[in-house]
Amino acid sequence: MFGKCQKDIRYSVRILIRLSLEEKPINSKAISELENISRKYAMKLLFYLKEANLVKTIRGKNGGYTLVKDPHEIYLIDITRTFKSNIEIVSCPKDCPNHNFCKARKFWKWLNKEVFKLLSSTSLKDIIDGNFKNYFSFQ
């Protein structure tokens, strides 16, 4: 997730939130204007989101894009997978000479698993409602 696709994921979340807040289909021009992104980029992201079966198009005068599922059924992991993004914060090379006894590797492996669980359990609705704040407790 922290690689090349980070921007695509960020903007896709914004687009999906926009679609979930609209009561009717919204076209790519309106999406790009409302989200302050280029229409070309919005259309690229919408193409990938449609391929991932997260959005669908409605044809006609009042057509546009709409969500395929309810926001509580769309998870961040679904969006991340749309872009085939590596969700690891740190990935250790398999050919590392310290692979078998590295203490840091165990931590990174645990952290990556926690990120995966977080993305798998956080829905678009959670983000819209602000329900993600209770996932972390810092002392």
UniProtKB/TrEMBL annotation:
Any Pfam family matching the protein: Rrf2
GO cellular component terms, semicolon-separated: cytosol
Top-level division of the source organism's lineage: Bacteria
Any one Gene Ontology molecular-function term assigned to this protein's record: DNA-binding transcription factor activity
Xref: InterPro entries: Tscrpt_reg_Rrf2, WH-like_DNA-bd_sf, WH_DNA-bd_sf
Coiled-coil ranges from the UniProt annotation: none
Name the record gives this protein: Transcriptional regulator, BadM/Rrf2 family
Protein source organism: Thermosipho atlanticus DSM 15807
Organismal lineage: Bacteria, Thermotogati, Thermotogota, Thermotogae, Thermotogales
